[in-house]
Design a protein that fits this description.
This protein has a 5-stranded antiparallel β-sheet with strand order 2-1-9-8-7, sandwiched between helices. A two-stranded antiparallel sheet has the order 3-6. A hairpin with a 4-residue loop joins strand 1 and strand 2. The chain is α+β, with helices and mostly antiparallel strands. The chain folds into 2 domains: 170 residues, DD-peptidase/beta-lactamase superfamily (Beta-lactamase, 3-Layer(aba) Sandwich); 106 residues, DD-peptidase/beta-lactamase superfamily (Beta-lactamase), CATH 3.40.710. It is globular. The N and C termini lie far apart (67 Å). The chain contains 10 helices and 9 strands.
Length: 315
Amino acid sequence: MKQHHITLSIAVIAVVSIILNISTWSKPSNEQKYPLLAKRLFVSSPNDLLINFTSLREDLRKYIDKSDHKIGVYFEYLPTGISININGNDDYYRASLVKLPGVMRTYKLIEDGKLQEQEQLEVKPYHLNNFGENKDLKVGMKKTVGELSALALRDSNNTAYEIIYEKVNGDILKKEKGDEETINNVYNYLDIPTPGPDQTLFISPKNYSSALKSLYFSSYLNYADSSKLLDHLTHSSFNDWLPKNLPKDLLIAHKFGIFDLNEPANYKVHSDCGIVYLPKRPYLLCVMGQQANNDNLGADIADISKIVYDFLTKN
């Protein structure tokens, strides 16, 4: 009888163990669930790689010094936080880079229960005054806040961003058109300095990188929303600059900005900032440039991106 009880106890323990193991196997880890977020969010003792970046800094400086354009670069090696800053504190006109903090603020309001991601917003004629209709947005169409956010980040769709901005800044925050409360809120949270209230038209590569890092480390939005916005950025329809000379299957979450109409010189900008998910060696690279002539500044951005990638894959 005693032996029978022992055998039964062992069997029960075995069954419980199997059930627990099955439960563990079937439940994805946070690292699996949020593959675009920083691995050190989920690993207690990360094994950071030690790399000497001196030669990379010298190569980047030589390239920038030879360019006719004014160029600012901020690089950060995400496993350790080591950075390279070459004119990275200089300010440049934000152009479409502003769409990222604008959408970040939108999702913060969703998390706070003040806005619904599935709420539908209608495209009005005045939304198209500056940009015209396109295949995704025509007068009378209705799109959800989530769909408009995706268009703003993936395609840098100006009309989509205008509709979101009107909803957030006007309807929810009760601010006048042109007020910068939406962007100021994100900048203040991330300690990004501005010259004064409502002055967010210009930003430096280093400061803009804080917005990308806040998503990577999920420090402004929750895991799910940080990962969602990063995923949108990995599906950018514009890949002529940072990603151009890199492998096509390499994951890159990036946002570009361009403004080169007949404006003062300091408004003629080409910028591309993103996180490059190089396996085991992810890094952040933000390149902003002020165009000096008709030469292709985008080619300089692509070259700088390739210099960084080659260094990290060969060292």
